[in-house]
Amino acid sequence: MDVNELFWQASIHDIKKGYHDEATHFTCLLCGEKIEKGIIYPHEGVLFEAEKFMQHHITAAHQSVFHYLNGLHKKMTGLTDHQSHISRLFYEGKTDQEIKEELEIGSATTIRHHRFTLKEKERQAKTFLAMMELLKEQNEKEDSFVPIHKTATMVDDRYNITISEEQQLLEKYFPNGIGKELVRFPKREKHKIVILRAITKIFDETTHYSEKELNEMIQPIYEDYVQIRRYLIEYGFMDRKEDGSAYWIKK
Q1: Most buried by CB count within 10 Å: which residue of 7, 64, 81, 131?
Q2: Phi and psi torsions of 27, nearest 5°
Q3: Between helices 211-218 and 225-234, what is the axis angle to 10°?
Q4: Buried/exposed code over 51-64 (b: 16+ C-beta within 10 A; e: otherwise)
Q5: Which residues have CB under 8 Å from 242's CB, separation 6+?
Q6: Are 113 and 106 in contact (CB under 8 A)?
Q7: Phi, psi torsion values for 71, nearest 5 degrees
Q8: Residue 85: CB partners within 8 Å, gap ≥ 6?
Q9: What is the pLDDT of residues 204-243, one digit of tens each?
Q10: Rounded-to-integer distance, Cα 87 and Cα 115, Å
């Protein structure tokens, strides 16, 4: 299971921690980093047990779970850019007066209104989660949707893809199996998402690739590797350095 699927299937408790406890290791839900259990990890003169080292990793790599979640696309959080900004200031312990001055808002009453709005969203979220749990229990056989990758640049109806629909499309476009030759690159947006998602499986999430290495891996799948490379960046599956010297899977 890739880190994107692991994130969306995780419990609220695990998402708050930022990592998942597995039999032999801890997996970071934010980037996929794995910390093996039973090992003492030295870092800057300090010795860490595995779970403590995972907590250290989250702080060092992501600042905090809150900051990571707060930085997700607004379609993922349900917050406007302004609400995201102000909630971060709340999390950082800023007083209403400090927030008023930083955001150049005329009245502290406005800040209190934002606090109330976020509390209201929390109540709505709890109600909605309970409803969805009941709905899933009522419709256990209903086909589930493919998880949206957390680094998606645009989140809209193109991501309304069920597991069975994804499988049908993969069989259509990769008749010889995923990672083999792609019969053609689709025009429909939903189909593009499925194909690009499948192509990312050939890459190691921990590796940075040169443009030449990337091209050599894509070309056996599809002759126009430049088009595939461009779409992998455009749709948020991969990122690169500005000079194109390195490419990697976004987490």
Answers
A1: 7
A2: -115, 125
A3: 110
A4: eebbbbbbeeebee
A5: none
A6: no
A7: -90, 0
A8: 103
A9: 888 999 999 999 999 999 999 999 999 999 999 999 999 9
A10: 8
Contact 96, 170 (CB under 8 A): no
Structure tokens at 109: 């009453």
Residue type, 75: K
Angle, vertex CA 150, rays to CA 124 and CA 144, nearest 5: 70
Question: Tokens in use for 24?
Answer: 């032999």
53 with 43: CB under 8 angstroms?
yes
| CB contact at 8 A, 91 and 70 | yes
Q: How many CB atoms lie within 10 A of CB 144?
A: 9
Architecture of domain 157-249: Orthogonal Bundle (1.10)
Spatial contact of 214 and 221, defined as CB atoms under 8 Å apart: no
> Amino acid letter at 185?
F
* Structure confidence by residue, pLDDT tens digits, 141-182: 666 777 777 777 777 777 888 888 899 999 999 999 888 899
- What is the number of residues in the chain? 251
| Residue partners of 177: CB distance under 8 A and separation at least 6 | none
